[in-house]
Protein 1
Amino acid sequence: MWPRATGACLALLTALSVGAAVPPPLPAEHLGLAKLGAASPHWVWVFDESNNNETDMRLYLYDGDAHRQLGQIDTGFWPGVAMSPDGRTTAVATTYFSRGSHGTRTDVLELTDNSTLSITGEIVLPARHAQTIPLHNAAFSGDGRLVYVTNLSPATSYSVVDLSTKAVVAEIDTDGCVLVIPSGPRRVSSLCENGRLLTVTLDQTGHEASRKVSAPFFNVDKDPIFIQGEPTSNGIVFVSFLGDVYGVDLSGAEPAFAPVWPTMTAAERGKWRPGGAQVVTLHRKSGRLYLQVHKGGDGTHKVTGDEVWVYDTASHKRVARWPIDVKKHGGVQAVKVSQDDKPLLFVLTEASDLLVLDAMTGQSLYAEPKLGQSSWYLLNP
Amino acid sequence: MQQRLDHWAERVSRGIARRTSRRGFLSAFGRTLTGVALLPLLPVMRGSQALAAEPASKAATTDPNACEYWKYCAIDGFLCGCCGGSSSSCPPGTQQSPITWIGTCHNPADGRDYIMSYNDCCGKTSCGSCFCNRNEGERPMYRMSLNNDVNWCMANDNPNYHCSVSVVLGVAGK
């Protein structure tokens, strides 16, 4: 038996040595430049806070069907990020230093063509744009002509940038209120420390025409709302630390506040709660609202989620609980749902893993490991 | 001038912190911050209540480079003690932020609540060591004086963020 096996091995080595199995050399390659295909509702933008080197934050464009990264937009130091209403342009309001980490500070609004991921223009800003998390700190007007950029020095205001003239045309004092939440062609709302909503109406040129301050619509001491809101068909929806839902209709001259409804049962309230970086997302057509939750008490509003709970906003009923494999991926930092008829739910975790779920069934479709260094926010047009 | 004003602000805030209740301090100085862009810069009070005393780990009282150390109950950033500084001093070559916010942390070693000033250290890029995010009493950005998401180096000549410290201002009033 042994001599027979040895003989077979020798025969195989002989066959290989005569070169019959050696493939032909590879052809020369040409250095190429990839192009993006047509935009898909299943694309999502992943914001990497680059925690260990914050002057180098960025946005990754990811395809939820092809399961691959498509490209990147650089976003500097603590940017505000906005997508144009038509989805064609990304506006990044950020800070650069002339010597990398130090030197002269320049704040700038950079515009990127989302079909090429190339910068197409910039407008220098007053050097006081708000350096904080990227949500609601830059926004397009409804007609796409203006961009609003939150300022914080720590005095609060926002700059109004006219893209048609590439100029900062006005600075609106917000009297201690923060964020830019756009509605209609020329209205901007901001959240105030007493639970009110400041709404400023601008004229066609971007200057202040009038302002209104609402009555308080949430209790800042007992149950504050997260600043992250999700667009609805007529405005925006917020969620509070204890999980109550606050809908705000911004379609009229003054905001209108919908009745508040709870996502937690009496037994769950204060024990389970939303938490993480970006806690809620809404599929507008189906009215499904997705909330990442964990078990925890006061002070855990940035603790990441263990599960995603799904609600029907018409009936206010919870329709599903989807546990996340947090041992494998870490807890949930952010959720974002696509707005098409076969929506995907993107779930971003502490490990910067991007999970892709069927947003109707919760079925796990894919898990992209470690997409960036500290990717904590998700955006889509 | 800036340095003298900062020292004045620190002395004033420490004195007031010792003499007044937390909410009184908040009402007096929380409003002061808003709209003050150029003056240096009174720390502002966080209206939190220190969490009720919980069983503390050994590191909560003995290891100032551990995130669970008692002074860090609402800090968000890199601990300066891991970056060449300490829990109350900035690393060499950085600059202290003249504006900041204030919280109240419970020291399990002596059972007292202390008023803490959370300052950022500025002028160099992220330290990258000992990241710590705790949020006891932290509130969203619309309550600026209670928020740890903004870059408190924002008013520095070089607003780049490096690391964070937690400085004891005094025992919290009852």
Protein 2
Amino acid sequence: MSEQAPDTAGRGLAEEARGRVRFEEEALSYADQIYQVARHLAGSKEEAEELMQETYARAFRSWRSYTPGTNMRAWLLRILTNINIDQGRRKQRRPPERSLEEGDYSLYDRLEQAAGDGSTGDEERLLQRLSQSDVVDALAALPHDFRDVLVLVDLGEFSYQETAQILSVPIGTVMSRLHRARRLLRQSLASSLGGEK
Amino acid sequence: MSKIPCSKCESLLQLYLDGELSEGEVRVAEAHLDECGYCRRHYRFERAFRAYLREALRAEPMSPELKVKLVALRSDAQPGERL
């Protein structure tokens, strides 16, 4: 059995304690950003708050498995998405049967038609025809696998590779889900303009 | 102004905006956007749509109560400790 000089062991423990405090402070500094993503991964504000607490409790317990210098925001969201999936809170939704043949340009075309000729070239003005609640509802209505990818890439601003690591799926899966998620979201928003002329 | 959808540009557009194209593909996409007004307008729209999406989906900030609960989970947190 090896023996360590007491002061060496003490220094080691003190260094570990400092490392842990640094880890916890850094993790907490991301809490607002993590919450913004969590809010749309979870079904409600209450679920998002529970998810945050469970995520941080698990993160603080397993702090040694974090490699300093790597992307902590992605590491925390990996824990969060795992908990979200493990707990089976998310209702399984089947993707709509609606055809995905409409291209990515369809929302723009519909907005342009709805606006008439005057707003051509004025993207911000065209977008004002969409209501915030339509956008929130359209996102919430997406099947969760699609929504997770869209939220991580478009709101979390993660790369495809980072998103693949967070969700533990191949990058090709991220790309195909993202492609479908965007089309479904745009189709849904285009449909919300249905009553307009 | 051509109204013919450009399927090639359409398929590259999202990857281009996501910063996921190779250098060669970026050159192809940008050359196409330079010469195609129809795709350029859609590119501008998609860029504006992403900003709109982020803004529309911005959730209320985390509540102060939740922040306190998260801080209390720290290893050295003392009961009643505040931010």
